[in-house]
Design brief:
This protein has a domain of about 40 residues. The N and C termini lie far apart (about 70 Å). α9 runs antiparallel to α10. The protein is mostly helical and about 270 residues long. It is elongated.
Length: about 270
């Protein structure tokens, strides 16, 4: 039952004893109160309903409720923002970009809208657009390590490894225990032929894997084998063939791709 309808009934019950001398007044009171409280859900009501469904993973139902919220209040930036997230989850990437763009127009100081739109653009391989959005987010929040890291990753995707390294450097200066930044910086160093720096980064990553240093990682089980392989690559090009092959064997034991391992000629 509509909560507002219940409120109307409760208020009516409170006033009925006061008006029992005039029965017609009771009816008039109900006639006045019930429409007041039963006009339907507001934009905020639909937003809360949608948000609850979104948090429970009911994205299609959440989308319907956000549509209703926006229909009642076209200036609600939060509804566009959250509907964009729902559309992203439903793989409606173009729709998500449109909603994030509207949210940004309504609330241009929200760095998270730029950050999330960058993610969507990256999902459709628009890495230049993603980099631009990350830059806008960083203008609003310069010390956001995750945005800095993501921009570095997007630079890597367009093979701009020097700018990627600069972003990973900044990420590490803000969040020195963030292991993915060392991992991706190590890969970027390898791509530009700086194997000494690459080896240093992967030594740090492996030290984390072995529990020798503290850190924060995404706990992807594939990372460990890849870390050993990338360390092997650095050692191989630094003429440490024995160390490279030792790391290759470790990568192989951890399930790394045999085709890539064969490139180092350790078999």
């Amino acid at each position: 039952m509509n909560v507002k309808f219940l409120i109307a009934i409760l208020i009516s019950c409170f006033y009925l004893p006061l008006l029992r001398k005039n029965i017609m007044n009771n009816y008039l009171l109900l006639i006045l109160l019930i429409p007041m409280f039963c006009l339907g859900q507001s934009s905020s009501d639909y937003f809360l309903e949608a948000y609850d469904k979104q948090n429970n993973g009911n994205y299609k139902e959440a989308l319907i409720a956000y549509d209703k919220s926006i229909a009642l209040d076209s200036q609600a930036s939060g509804s566009y923002y959250n509907r964009a997230i729902v559309k992203y989850k439903l793989k409606d990437y173009n729709g998500a970009i449109i909603d994030f763009t509207t949210s940004i127009k309504l609330n241009p100081s929200d760095n998270t809208a730029f950050y999330n739109r960058a993610d969507v653009r990256a999902a459709i391989n628009d890495f230049e657009g993603a980099i631009e959005d990350c830059s806008m987010a960083l203008n609003l929040e310069p010390f956001d390590a995750y945005t800095q890291y993501n921009r570095g990753y997007y630079y890597s995707k367009i093979l701009d490894f020097k700018n990627a390294i600069l972003d990973y450097n900044k990420t590490i200066s803000i969040k020195p225990k963030f292991i993915p930044a060392y991992r991706q910086r190590g890969v970027a160093y390898s791509k530009i032929g700086d194997y000494k720096s690459s080896l240093k980064d992967f030594n740090h990553v492996i030290s984390y894997q072995l529990g020798k240093v503290e850190g924060i990682d995404d706990n992807n089980p594939n990372n460990k084998s890849g870390d050993y392989y990338n360390m092997a690559v650095a050692k191989y090009y630094l003429d440490d063939k024995e160390g490279a092959c030792r790391d290759v064997r470790m990568a192989k034991e951890l399930g790394y791709s045999l085709s890539k391992i064969k490139d180092l000629k350790c078999e």
